[in-house]
Amino acid sequence: MKKLTEGGDRYEIYWMVIGIVLLAITALATYPMVYTLGGSPNVTSDIPSNTSSNRVINTIINATQYTFMISESSESLKSITILPNGEILPYYYNLMVVHPGEYLNMTMYGVEGKSATESMYIPVYNSKYVVDTKILPGISQYAVWYSGTTNGSYLPYGAYTFLNSEYNGPWFSYQAGEILVIPESGYIPYSSLLSYISSTKVAQSSGLIGDPYNPPLYISNSTDPTFYLVSDDYALFNDSVPGPTFAVAENSTVTLKIYIPTPKGDHNWLYNYSSNGEPYAINNIYVGVYAVWWNGTITPVVYQLIKYDSPINFTFEARAPAYLYGIIYPSFYNFNPNNLSSSLLGEQKGYVMSLWGSVLVFEG
Q1: How far is CA 68 from CA 95, 177, 266, in A?
Q2: Is residue 29 included in any domain, yes or no?
Q3: Could you tell me which of 61, 95, 59, 87 has the C-alpha nearest to residue 324?
Q4: What angle (nearest 5°) sits at the alpha carbon of residue 223, between those of residues 199 and 329?
Q5: pLDDT digits (tens, 9 = 90+) for 56-73
Q6: What pLDDT is attached to residue 34?
Q7: CATH code where residue 280 lies
Q8: Is 36 within 8 Å of 139 (Cβ atoms)?
Q9: 114 found inside a domain
Q10: Cβ atoms within 10 A of the Cβ of 207, count?
Q11: Rounded to two decimals, what is the model's pTM?
């Protein structure tokens, strides 16, 4: 019996050593990928070696709870957002801007202490690459997206939705943004706008059945179009995040009529809580119209502080290639009823935005 026991012990040691060796081999083999989980830096090989540097936009994405902060830089485009209070930000919120035939060379980070596991998802849209990359705090991820198709042609000008496809809390479905594909100069050819509509319909009727992604598009050939936007009790314009996309002719006089009701419950992020647990309606945030210029700079055109239960009307001349409307930056949300939020009982907070959308400007 003693010999059998000694033999059994010996085999147990063998198996333990084999397990440790296999674990070590696995760790060594996968170590280069550990800190790029979800997207290896090797994806940069998706950018052809003969691509001119001025066709590559270096894109840094910092993901926080419910918001993407996106910095872009290239020889022809740089992310700059000027807010109504004069603050200048070197990034966009939930937005990317690109010209046709350019590559977005993305490096993505989860902001430690301000994010959970998230994911950058850019659907097909007939584009060359699909992006579906996890973003985790403390880990770098990489992805490439090309504003062109697999056969080398350019994507039509338009607004293409991207989103967080990883549940990270109750507002995760509001963490959606747009890639604005705009001209390097001039305005969108009307034929390209029709191609955008056609390609969107094709995508929605084949690979994206049941998942519309791109917001509804409304086109006006009028010289003075008027559009109506009504928020519902869930802080959505026309049941869409982002809100509807409008297309107008260059130099037309555009009027937006916006209505936002007073938020009445926890299903609306405009219904917030103070640090002592008292509910209140957010009232220190701007609603406005912002021009998106050819070089990526975003400037305020008309704006005012949010006003509930009465119309907010904006009129502007369509002189930029695209515009954003609504609330284009997030507000801090803290679910804290009766001051019960704590690290012990649980916390639910983050930066949320949903009442916004874009306007495309086509050649008149």
Answers
A1: 8, 8, 23
A2: no
A3: 95
A4: 60
A5: 999 999 999 999 999 999
A6: 37
A7: 2.60.40.420
A8: yes
A9: yes
A10: 13
A11: 0.86
The rounded distance, in Å, linking the Cα atoms of 214 and 208 is 10
Cα distances (Å, whole numbers) of residue 326 to 6, 170, 191, 242, 281: 76, 22, 28, 10, 17
Q: How far is CA 313 from the centre of its chain?
A: 26
Distances (CA, A) of 225 to 16, 253, 356: 75, 7, 19
CA distances from 343 to 115, 281, 336, 348 (A): 15, 24, 12, 10
Spatial distance between the Cα atoms of 110 and 155, rounded to a whole number of angstroms? 29
Report residue 147's pLDDT band, with 50, 70 and 90 as the boundaries: very high
80-84 long-range contacts, CB within 8 A, separation 24+ = 80/296, 80/297, 80/298, 81/298, 81/328, 81/329, 82/297, 82/298, 82/299, 82/300, 83/286, 83/300, 83/329, 84/286, 84/288, 84/300, 84/303
DSSP β-bridge partners for residue 273? 279
Instruction: Please give the single-letter amino acid code of residue 306.
Output: I
Alpha-carbon distance 103 to 53, whole Å? 10
**Is the peptide bond preceding residue 242 cis, with omega within 30 degrees of 0?**
yes
Is residue 23 situated within a structural domain?
no
Look up residue 128 and give its amino acid: K
Distance CA 261, CA 48 (A): 50
Paired residues of 67 in beta bridges: 64
Per-residue pLDDT at 4: 47
Tens digit of each residue's pLDDT (9 = 90 or more) over 150-178: 788 898 999 999 999 888 888 999 999 99
Structural domain span for residue 240 = 41-362
Maximum pairwise Cα distance, the chain: 98
**Residue at 260 is within a domain:** yes
Give me the number of domains the chain comprises: 1
- What is the average per-residue pLDDT within 139-145? 90
